[in-house]
Amino acid sequence: MSTSANSLGTALVTGASSGIGAVYADRLAHRGYDLLLVARNGERLAALADRLSAETGVKAEVLTADLSSRADLGRVEQRLRDDAAITMIVNNAGFGEMDGLLQSDTGALDSMIDVNVVAVNRLAVAAAQTFAPRGSGAIINIASVVALIPERVHGTYSATKAFVLTLTQAIHANVAERGVKVQAVMPGVTRTAFFERAGGSVDALPPEMVMDVNDLVDAALAGFDQGELVTIPSLPDAGEWETLTQARAAMAPNLSLRTPAARYLHRG
Questions:
Q1: Pair 85, 9: CB distance under 8 Å
Q2: Per-residue b/e over 181-191, b at no fewer than 16 CB within 10 Å?
Q3: CATH code for the structural domain at 10-237
Q4: Which tens digits make up the pLDDT trace of 53-105?
Q5: Single GO molecular-function term (predicted)?
């Protein structure tokens, strides 16, 4: 894919047909990125691509793929590795489950893991391996605040988003000094079709908990511009995240020692 004269390169956006992914596509096009839009709904992708091309003059290409399919995922990964025009990936595709953990179909949970974990991992690692030798590029992974409050939501979904958070932190540790920008975005409840597809509704929640999707993406990109590794758009005091990060680091020297902690040595 050749890029436009005014382009910053091509941004590959997964789950781009609606919601957070579609807004990312809009904002990145207006910043000057060409687009490679990935989702299952090719018709909706094509309409978005046509609109953004007409509005901004960037090139927008559609790649229809179901990321729960290993064959489709492989096609997207290979394109990411082979296309030198791609300078950014927004790993946004994912879905949730509103039924309680004890009522969930395990086959459906496998599909969730395929999209939320396997696909994100394959594409993020491929991007890191591709961008690092170039000394440039950007990887944005959409996680969730549920990674921090797993007791309150569906266990498998929160675990998938915890994976995305820790994967992002680990990738950053490997590529930050090689010129690759990495960010984990952690939305709270956002007004998209996500809840309806999962079998619920945001209208059942207190309105003060629900962020507009445009505000969410704009805040996330502001965090990206500021160089944040982890962006929690609704968190008023960034110092709270820093405190959590420092507490985790403080434990690090004692997480692997030769002897058990004293409290485990008592013999009754």
A1: yes
A2: bbbbbbbbbbb
A3: 3.40.50.720
A4: 999 999 999 999 999 999 999 999 999 999 999 999 999 999 887 677 777 88
A5: 3-hydroxypropionate dehydrogenase (NADP+) activity
